[in-house]
Amino acid sequence: MASLTPLGALCGGLLSSLPLSRLGRRLTMVISASLSILTFIFLGTSSITESLSSIFAARAIMGVGVGLTIPSAQIYVAECTESRIRGTLSSMPALFMAAGTLLTYIMGAYLPWHYLSYFCANFPVLFLLGLTIVPESPSWLLSKNKNEPALKALTWLRGNRNVDKELEIIRENIQRSNFAATKAENDPYNVPKSACIDSSIMMPLFISMSLMFFQQWSGVNAVIFYTVTIFDSAGSTVNKNLATIIVGLVQFLATFVSIFLVDKAGRRILLIASGLIMAISSAAVGTFFYLKAVDQHEGLGWLPLTGLITFMVGYSVGFASVPYVLMGEILPRASRNLLGSISSAFNLLNTFLVIKLFVNLEILIGFYGVFWVYASLALASCLFVLIFVPETKGKSLEEIETHFRK
């Protein structure tokens, strides 16, 4: 039941390329918001029918909506914002995901699950209402030769400033990307067609997918989905529901702080700091469970809560938002719809695997083994960032694309 939503989201992520390309970013988000409203209501009414299959179906379809939202929201924000504030605004989805997690933890402590479903249905309604105000992405409009709507959209987004120069830069980059893609496809001297996919496409995709892998295998969703279970197993002296709410609150506050750092400190330093903090805290929690297994944990009842709080701080300052920020920044415009859906789907595949395999791994290697695996992968993420991830702070999308093209 826990893993059905990310499994549905995997399908939604794979399907998102088509509506992103044909319908646009805004209409794709309208579809995802509508799906969320309907499935939350459907989930709530499952308590009346007492049908387990209805619950499973609602969870899976809800995931499809999530899978559509992630790439469309990140690409929309990246394409509509100026470079000086793009990192901050691209971090907002992660902030509101943390806020949603916290609010659900709090309300879930007091509401029956079907009432909680009805309560949660209100938020995609707000999302849908918000989408009636904002315009479509100017970049997508220009790619469809809708020049006048693109001018109006960008003027609205920039507060009625003159946008002719910025619009021309976007148009030139679209033409350059389209020309390069067409040339590659039509070149009779290219040996296999796969050779058309060069490093300017594969390297950004490789970086984005790798960051998604490290984000999920830090174990964050195992912690979020199984917080109560973890505290139960730890035998913590803190009430398990209170501890869960504390972890959610810390995640929200740390993510809130991080959105002001991403455009000041830069992407790389936040990812490295995030990986190091997660590695240390996961190792500490794993050590607690090992000491508990050998009955040497007397006086360490505070460690699970402290460790998971520190873990959430580490996750929230970097890996909570920066992989999504970079996904919207580094993927080339001509292939952004397809590559964004691939990267998002890969993220959701790993979300599904982390949640589904958590219990199996715990049985196989114990809680301490699971957290030590998470710690090792968090440490590996730091090395990956040092070697492969470029700094994109303050650069336009056109400059970033030129960097990979070179």
Please give the share of residues in helix. Answer: over 70%
What is the residue-averaged pLDDT? 84
Strand fraction equals under 5%
- Helix/strand order: HHHHHHHHHHHHHHHHHHHH
Radius of gyration: 22 Å
Overall, the morphology is: globular
Major sheet attributes = none
Number of helices: 20
Q: How far is it from the N-terminal to the C-terminal residue, by CA?
A: 46 Å
Number of strands: 0
Q: Which structural category do the helix and sheet elements fall into?
A: mainly alpha
Low-confidence stretches: 187-196
Short description:
The protein has helices at 4-15, 17-22, 25-49, 52-80, 83-90, 92-108, 113-120, 122-131, 138-143, 147-157, 164-186, 199-216, 220-225, 227-234, 240-258, 267-293, 303-317, 322-330, 336-388, 397-405. By secondary structure, the protein is mostly helical.
Detailed description of the structure:
By secondary structure, the protein is mainly α. 79% of the residues lie in helices and 0% in strands. The protein has 20 helices and no strands. α1 packs across α19, α12 packs across α19 and α16 packs across α19. The chain is globular, with a radius of gyration of 22 Å.
Topology of helices and strands:
Layout: H1 4-15, H2 17-22, H3 25-49, H4 52-80, H5 83-90, H6 92-108, H7 113-120, H8 122-131, H9 138-143, H10 147-157, H11 164-186, H12 199-216, H13 220-225, H14 227-234, H15 240-258, H16 267-293, H17 303-317, H18 322-330, H19 336-388, H20 397-405
Helix pairs in contact: 1-4, 1-19, 3-4, 3-7, 3-8, 4-18, 4-19, 6-15, 12-18, 12-19, 12-20, 14-15, 15-17, 16-17, 16-19
